[in-house]
Design goal:
Helices cover 39% and strands 20% of the residues. The chain is of the alpha/beta class. A hairpin with a 2-residue loop joins β1 and β2. It starts with a strand and ends with a strand.
Length: 119
């Protein structure tokens, strides 16, 4: 099955990470990685209750890292692997501007995205 993660910042800046060949991250390790990045970037909970869902962490970390963070291939691959494992979905679309995460079939990948380099 096709698996990928796309992060969109605006119409001209989006990144797509194919995950079919990527080494899967353990879900517990993925949540720990996202927790560390959430704290490192001093992210704030999106919900008034203070509860932080995995999807919230993924969006907040993507927003905080920005395009500059995703320009670092090693960090970007770690983010994609952690988000994929934490969210447990095959195709994940993150819109950093709209603070949204969408899960969809592979045919709905963001058009015009740039594919991240493989290691």
């Amino acid at each position: 099955m096709h698996s990928e993660l796309s992060v969109r910042f605006d119409a001209q800046h989006a990144f797509t990470f194919p995950l079919d060949q990527a080494q899967p991250m353990d879900p517990r390790a993925a949540r720990a990685w996202l927790d560390r990045e959430f704290i490192r970037y001093a992210c704030e909970p999106l919900r008034r209750s203070g509860k932080v869902l995995n999807a919230d962490k993924v969006v907040c970390v993507a927003q905080a890292a920005g395009r500059q963070g995703f320009a670092d291939p090693e960090w970007a691959r770690a983010f994609a692997s952690a988000a994929h494992a934490a969210l447990d979905q095959e195709v994940i679309l993150i819109d950093a501007t709209m603070a949204s995460v969408t899960f969809c079939p592979p045919a709905h990948a963001i058009p015009g995205t740039r594919t991240a380099p493989h290691s």
